[in-house]
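Model the whole thing, not chain by chain.
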Amino acid sequence: MASAKPRVKVPKKASAGDVITIKTLISHKMESGQRKDKKGEVIPRQIINKFECFFNGEPVFSCDIDPAISANPYFEFSAKVDEPGTFKFVWTDDDGSVYETEKAIKVN
Amino acid sequence: MKLTRRETMSFSAGAIALMIAGARTAPAMAGAGETDAAVMAFSGGAQPEAGVITLKAPEIAENGNTVPVSVSVDSPMTKDDYVESVAIFAEGNPNPEVVTFNFTPRSGEAAATTRMRLAKTQNVVAVAKTSTGKVYIDKREVKVTIGGCGG
């Protein structure tokens, strides 16, 4: 699904050592593989199965996702920032597509 | 066909009974046994202890398609002692696995929020695994008005 659009909320700046909250959302139907179409045939599963967050290349948070996560998967988590840098967010689709976005943060 | 009130009532009662029977048998649900097995597989056989981890979920979810859930674990989150992962399981879904959060010391706090699907009223279980080998568990019942597994 090429139309998957990630949205991420990261504070613009923080003090060194702060624990900040990050909110992410990506538009995706998260087809569970349990539903049937009008003919009674099972609609094949297609979900985002992995989400990862990196800060300056180092892993911060990730999750392995099963079909029980709602459509347009939303994740809220925290990160500790000691230095300025860039957060990178990566979503991996069942069909192999990878959706990425980045956010910079100022630290003083 | 014209129905009297009495006939209509008994007919609809029968229909409801059929629906309930159908709902019981139709989808194969995970059940508590399968969830326990999944918890054990996640914990690596360690017996989970209560406390330290908190699972937050609504008591009543009107729409099973998006049920907000939060977990937080009390942990110093240092290099030597941090929460490695937290898994969420749903006993009444077709598959018990919902999501596994993987934390690092850079996470700062072992807390995360997401939205999940629940097929029916059931127990939601959260299990945390720390870098020191401790396993913690918390359980909460969520009443679901409209199930969220399609059908």
